[in-house]
Amino acid sequence: MNGEGRVLEIRRLSKLIIQTKLQEGYQLDPRSLLRAVELLSEAIYDFSILQSDEPCDEQEMLKGTLAKMRIAYNIVSTGQKPNEHTVF
Questions:
Q1: Which of 4, 23, 53, 66 has the fewest Cβ atoms within 10 angstroms?
Q2: Does the pLDDT of residue 71 top 90, yes or no?
Q3: C-alpha separations of 35 from 12, 32, 64, 69 in Å
């Protein structure tokens, strides 16, 4: 997957996380919620590095950010219905 494809996948996962969280009756245990927030914060931090003048390997940074987003999505989506929405 190229850089643009990774960015689009990150955007798609972000939208899915928002949609999942807004479902009526959605619940997530506090430890899982904390881990998801941590991963999402790390993803935002990574994007801030990509947008700055700080030197980095953009493709590796996007790959890592996408992995964090996938894990965060899996945590959030399994809070409602285990294993039905897992993204690999």
A1: 53
A2: yes
A3: 20, 5, 16, 12
